[in-house]
Design a protein that fits this description.
By secondary structure, the protein is an alpha/beta fold. The chain contains 21 helices and ten strands. GO terms for molecular function: ABC-type transporter activity; ATP binding; ATP hydrolysis activity; ATPase-coupled lipid transmembrane transporter activity.
């Protein structure tokens, strides 16, 4: 039962991966299979041609006695058997050359097909992930995406699809050789099929479950290693200061050792059937020759057939060995296919079109009209019945204790989340899922955790654009507004084309913050959001940054989430949140004397 169960498991996975193909890809897949069948037939012809060549070489008189050979000899116009035998030898050599060229062509064809599927799987999966709602990413680890897009896509495309096509190729060749043996002697062919079928079926059934187990271990510990690397190098400053090198190195050593030991077991188990079959086949051949010699049987009359069997065995044995290895590799890769299938199915079902829509006009005010927000599957509201207005070109501060709902307000304002109840209105136009991308074109965002890519300063300011598409004058205007232009032009060796380094490691904290402010200003937004953007800075740097921000307030609408209340001292209005409710609003001086929550916040910072 186990071989039958294994066959259906393999058939299910093959059907799954074929279901991911478009109509054009299915046609190309069919063409690949046709070429593989034709290659197998030519392979069979190459093996079959050896028997008549050996026969006439050992007995030239056969040319006259065999009707087909006699007709070919007559058609050739040659006058001696010797020349005809030479012609047959040249024809055999050309057939072998053609067969090998065809094999190379078919290999290139299905390799190209596989690599293009890997390419499509990868970029469509990337497209699918980035098109998902913001909430999806709040429950994911970034290393999972790296692993899936690089490691798992490669396993599905190379270790499963490519290996499957290689397996099909070898099965066609093995089938063609066995058909040739049937033509020569159906009894011998039946014996070969029975022995090898039972042998391979039993060995594969024995190793299948172990190989799947090795595949799961490989998947799980590769995932752990990706997360570990992400944590170690993502927080390198804390690792160095807190002397965490030994901890991370120890974990990496443990995971790496488990993967390496698992790979040894996996590789040995993959080739185990090959060596068992090779031992049985060669031992049987040696026994057959020994019996023939021991009984003084003359094998000269059987030389052509013996040559055919030797040639067939020479090709069939490595072919069956490859079949065994390929089955092992496919079994291991099933784990990755099963875990990635749903994401791939979603990614490949309908192309994701991110439509470029015009901005929503913002001329008067933004209104939170009875806004309540509750995260999916949560029972408690994060925000409840929030009502306030943000007039255009005003500066609004947001204050509150940790967990009061400040960040959720900003996420709603930025269109990353939509209210559970109530409305967010921009000049009386409600924000919905179908227009929030239009609204986001009005927004410049400066986060608490600075994010810079390992690219040029210009590419970091004009975020999301290729270097050759960047309007450098617009970049310079944004840098000037963020008051970072003199530093870039005077102190950086290549100016705006200087590499920032990974996460902007070559720049100071204040310089990185100003680059991010320039990025927020690059699209000339109507609304600027500062999400505790100066919380990690010293007082002097923070004061300089805030001075630059307030110079923008006459031209832009600014919302500032405060880490230190001094950063919102000059705002037109301050919104004070407590436990998901808007506790108070007013100017700094008024709140500092009249509001209990604000006074508590102020007292904690003194």
């Amino acid at each position: 039962m186990k071989p039958i169960k294994s066959f259906f498991a393999l058939h299910k996975r093959v059907h799954r991966i074929k279901s991911l193909f478009s109509r054009g890809e299915k046609i190309r897949y069919f063409i690949v299979l046709v070429v593989l069948v034709f290659t197998a037939l030519v392979e069979m012809a190459g093996i079959g041609a050896i028997s008549p060549l050996v026969a006439v070489a050992s007995d030239p008189g056969l040319i006259e006695r065999n009707r087909i050979l006699a007709e070919l000899y007559s058609m050739s116009g040659l006058h001696t058997h010797k020349h005809f035998i030479l012609l047959m030898a040249v024809g055999f050599a050309l057939l072998i050359i053609g067969k090998n060229l065809l094999s190379l062509f078919s290999l290139g064809l299905y390799t190209h097909f596989t690599e293009m599927r890997k390419h499509v799987f990868g970029y469509r999966l990337m497209e699918e992930y980035l098109s998902r709602d913001y909430l999806y990413f709040k429950h994911q680890n970034s290393s999972d995406f790296t692993r899936k897009l690089i490691n798992e896509v490669n396993i599905v495309a190379r270790n499963f699809l490519y290996t499957w096509l290689s397996l099909v190729s070898q099965l066609f060749i093995a089938g063609a050789i066995i058909c040739l043996l049937f033509i020569q002697s159906w009894k011998i062919a039946l014996l070969v099929i029975s022995v090898l079928g039972l042998l391979f079926g039993g060995l594969f059934a024995f190793s299948k479950d172990q190989l799947r187990g090795y595949g799961k271990i490989d998947y799980d510990y590769t995932e752990k290693r990706y997360k570990l690397l992400n944590d170690a190098f993502g927080g390198i400053k804390e690792v160095k200061i807190l002397h965490g090198e030994k901890y991370f190195t120890g974990l990496f050593r443990k995971f790496s050792f488990i993967i390496s030991v698992n790979n040894v077991k996996k590789d040995v188990m993959s080739v185990f059937p090959k060596h068992v079959v090779e031992t049985v086949v060669f031992s049987a051949t040696a026994l057959f020759v020994a019996v023939m010699v021991g009984r003084d049987i003359d094998i000269s009359q059987s030389l052509p057939s013996f040559a055919l069997y030797i040639m067939a065995g020479y090709k069939l044995l490595p072919t069956l060995q490859k079949v065994s290895q390929f089955l092992g590799r496919i079994t291991i890769s099933m784990v990755s296919l099963d875990r990635l299938y749903d994401d791939l199915k979603e990614a490949l079902s309908v192309p994701k079109k991110i439509e470029e829509t015009p901005r929503i006009m913002f001329d008067n005010r933004i209104r939170f009209d009875g806004v309540t927000y509750r995260y999916p599957d949560a029972t408690e509201n994060v925000l409840s019945n929030i009502v306030f207005d943000i007039p255009k070109n005003s500066c609004i501060g947001i204050a509150g204790f940790s967990g009061a709902g400040k960040t959720t307000v900003v996420d709603l304002l930025a269109g990353l989340l939509l209210p559970t109840e109530g409305r967010i209105l921009v000049d009386d136009i409600p924000l919905r899922s179908n227009n929030r991308r239009s609204w986001q074109k009005n927004i410049g965002y400066v986060p608490q955790n600075i994010f810079l890519t390992d690219a040029t300063i210009a590419e970091n300011i004009a975020f999301g654009k290729d270097l050759n598409q960047i309007d450098l004058e617009a970049v310079k205007r944004a840098a000037q507004a963020a008051e970072i232009d003199r530093f870039i032009e005077k102190e950086l060796p290549k100016g705006y084309l200087t590499e920032a380094g990974e996460k902007g490691i070559r720049l100071s904290g204040g310089q990185r913050q100003r680059i991010v402010i320039a990025r927020a200003l690059f699209r000339d937004p109507e609304l600027l959001i500062f999400d505790e953007a100066t919380s990690a800075m010293d007082n002097k740097t923070e004061a300089a940054i805030m001075e630059s921000i307030h110079r923008l307030s006459a031209k832009k609408t600014i919302v500032i989430i405060a880490h230190r209340l001094t950063t919102i001292e000059h705002c037109d209005e301050i919104l004070v949140f407590k436990e998901g409710h808007l506790a108070a609003k007013g100017r700094y001086e008024e709140l500092a004397t009249e509001n209990t929550v604000f006074k508590e916040l102020n007292a904690l910072q003194k």
